Amino acid sequence: MLRYLVNRIIAFIPTLLGVSILVFLAIRMVPGDQITAMLGTEAGMLTQAQRAALEEYFGLDKPIVEQYFSWLGNALRGNLGYSVRHGEEVTKLILNHFPVTLELAFLSVAIALIIGLPIGIMAAIRHNSLLDLFGRIISMLGLSVPNFLLGTLIIYVLSVVFGILPNSGNYVDFHEDPVLNLQQLIFPAFAMGFSFAASVMRMTRSSMLEVLGDDYVRTARAKGLRERSVVLVHALRNALIPVVTLIGVEIGYLLGGAFIVEQIFSLPGIGRLAVGAISQRNYALIQGVTLFVALNFVVINLVVDVIYAAIDPRISYDRKA
Amino acid sequence: MIAKPEAITTELRTGRRPALWRRLIANRSGAVGLVLISLFVLTGLLGILGLTPYPPLEQHPRDRLTGPSATYLLGTDLFGRDLASRLMRGGANSLQVAAFSVLLASTVGTLLGIVAGYIGGQVDNVIMRVMDIFFAFPTLLLALLVVVVLGPGLQNTVFAIAVVYTPIFARVARGPVLSLKEMDFVTAARCLGISERRILFRHVLPNTMAPLIVQVSLALSWSLITEAGLSFLGLGTQPPEPSWGLMLSESRSLAETAPWLMLFPGLAIMLGVLGFNLLGDGLRDVLDPRTATRQ
After folding, report:
1. Is the dihedral of CA B55, B56, B61, B66 positive or negative?
2. Chain B residue whose CA is closest to A207
């Protein structure tokens, strides 16, 4: 197990380096020079000498490889640069916006599991029944309604039909007012969780169907166990293994920020920070957020792999075994 | 279910299973998917050819924000432009972006995947590690990053979405090649002195097609969502050119007075994505016997 873990971590370093190179180069490939990009229109007021001084200060006069390594070195020390527009460090901005995204991600997954698991299990037990058909229609719809469409519709129904405005830019932290905070997050979480509920439903159903046909389930039944304990104790435990992987991958995605949903519901999360940075052409911020999100994503995928190997008895960690 | 007599005779005569599209039509998901997509392709084609009720960009200032009527089938928007015509043209734009990006991604991805799998060794290692780097980004973020570098617009959207889906095709294509290249028919072909390139493209590639075809259909549905998402954020199709995502985004401020502006683009996005998802499910049932039994 330990060897497997070490091998996985070693294999993951080149990917991370690649990601950092890609993020670094992408921003350098944007047309126009960095000083203008940083300062916007105000860069026009700089004298030649001031511009040269700034370039020297930010190390832009050095060769690109040297620039990359100094950027990487800073990034490793948690320094992702400075957002001139916000007047704040990029790292600080990211850490300020991350909790919202984190909370939203976990709420979405919770909603998806509450909806998806029971329907998926019931659909498998009552295979080919009306309930199964209903579940399949719901999951097909869930996979076909993008979260931004569902979000838009939710806001419409809430505001026009019920006269409620979920939140108009006044986001409240959980520790300030938990009830209000949950009220603000529940609808966007539903918008994001619904399509994931559909995936969970489908995956649970198909893996339950597979497991219910297995020999050990037949043995459990033959022993005279009650159907409920066969399904919930014997079958479900193994059927959930692929669902766990699915949850991990989804959390990775969700922590990358709900770019559009956060925008629609005016939530100050990572996604909205990124979209704002892009529309303002705030390159230091784009670079920082992208690196942060990709890093998150890679690490979570690694964790999911390891958990998967740990909970599935059919997978052995050492090749020789 | 009892097969029709003519189906049996064809099968006997040719000794083959019925053609793919026949099996697809017999599959419920596949049939509904095909109908939905045909509908969109048809209206999209009319949109490209300019055969819309009104020119999509033409403004009718006296008829601003009118509801659906005999004159304007689905109503008009803030500038008095006909919504039905804009949906047709927008659909054409979205479908074009989806089709070209998936074409690009599947061609490049498949090529990289089969070459990596077939040659193996260091080539495989390098190609797949590079693909892993692209996999390290959530889809929309990677698309956004490409748009940041290239700038918004129709062509760049195609490229952005293609970059996102290329690694997926590479992975899907590489998998079966790994086992195919060890098979007897490949060894036999090599013994006959057939060139490696010919073996790869004529003997190995056709055998990887089943999972790739399913993947194409699913990728079309995702790229439709990604295009709508980018346009929703104002980074895809640029106004005044219509796009479903952009129209949905613009409708938000007018939702109370003109709900049809939100309803119809929303329905269009949903039905388009649903169509490709159903087709993908149908194809999977027809092409992959393992999942078919489970349904």
Report:
1. positive
2. B294
In this prediction, residue B2 carries a pLDDT of: 44
What average pLDDT is seen over chain A?
A: 85
Q: What is the domain range of residue B259?
A: 5-56+71-292
CB contact under 8 A, A156 and B262: yes
B145–A155 C-beta distance less than 8 A: no
Residue B111: inside a domain: yes
Q: What pLDDT was estimated at residue B11?
A: 42
Question: Domains (ranges, CATH) in chain A?
Answer: 2-90 (no CATH), 97-268+290-311 (1.10.3720.10)
Which stretches of chain A are assigned E, i.e. beta strand? 82-83, 88-89
Closest CB to B248: pick one of A149, A209, A298.
Answer: A149
**Residues B161-167, mean pLDDT to the nearest whole number:** 94
Residue B63 lies in a domain: no
Give residue-wise pLDDT tens across range B217-257. Answer: 989 999 999 999 999 998 888 888 899 999 999 998 888 88
Residue A138 forms contact with B (CB below 8 Å): no
The model's pTM: 0.86
pLDDT tens across A200-225, in order? 999 999 899 988 888 888 888 888 88
Give the three-class secondary structure for A170: coil
- Is the pLDDT at A308 greater than 80? The verdict is no
Domains of chain B: total: 1
Place of tokens 């960009």: B57
C-alpha span between A151 and A193 (Å, rounded): 11
Residue B32 token pair: 């509904």
Of A17-21, A38-42, B165-169, which gets the smallest average pLDDT?
A38-42
Q: SS in 3 state form for A88-120?
A: EEHHHHHHHHHHHHHHHHHHHHHHHHHHHHHHH
Best of B40, B94, B148 to mutate (most A CBs within 10 Å, chain A):
B148
Sign of CA dihedral B201, B202, B203, B205: positive
Query: Does A259 sit within 8 Å of B144, measured CB to CB?
Result: yes
